[in-house]
Amino acid sequence: MNLIDRYVAEVGKHLLLIKGRKDIEKELRSTLEDMLEERAKEKGMPADESMQMELLEEYGAPQKVAETYNPYPYLIGPRIFPFFMTILKIVVAAVTLGLSIATFVEIVNLSPITTMDVLSAIGHGILNIISASIAAFGNLALVFALIERFAPAAEFKMDEDKVWHPAELLKEPEPNKVKIWEPIVAIVFTFIAISIINFNPQLISLYYLDGNTWHTVPILSDAFFRWLPLMNVAWVVEIIRNGMLLRTGEETLSTRLTS
Q1: Pairing of strands 213-218, 205-210
Q2: 215 C-beta neighbours (distance < 10 Å), count
Q3: Is the terminal CB of the chain with fewer CB neighbours within 10 Å at N or C?
């Protein structure tokens, strides 16, 4: 195996793509061989190993070359990362508030209240907040990674990127157009609903205080959970629909049929 073959194989190891990898390697090998042949003609001597080394050094490190073929080298692109951070802060704040209230209720219901029990409840509450925040981060990262695939950074146009002209004030809004933030918010909160109802349904309850004791009454019945698989399918369809809206930027026949 000559240096060009080794170089192409090394580039292939760093390609994120599986489909089309062989074609990329074939194209790269052909390009390098043509460049080597042209360089040999210019120097009037047959191509040797030193000439291959010189060519490959100029062409660049295999990792850098592979990056030019990887369409999505990041999980969440820079264009939607600020929105991801905004939603993450909201979700983490909501989780922290909710679990802090739950911890407070647990402490109030202690009978008798001892210092060790209070410290234990606080420690348990902090651990719950940390684990729930990590879960929220993972769930949101998954959602936004899917958004990144539906709406790549090159196509994700934010309002501030557009050139504005006063004549736009005279235009009637197009009925089929959707605002970019609407499907994103729908995807995020649909995913949150899936997470809560499937994994923490006890959070959806009626809370009331009887004397010094808090009580909860579950709202979701067994009949509700029998329908949950179908509801999950409907939610997944809704996520896909909003992903399509992100991609097209407007209502289409497909999105209307799935709404």
Answers
A1: antiparallel
A2: 12
A3: N
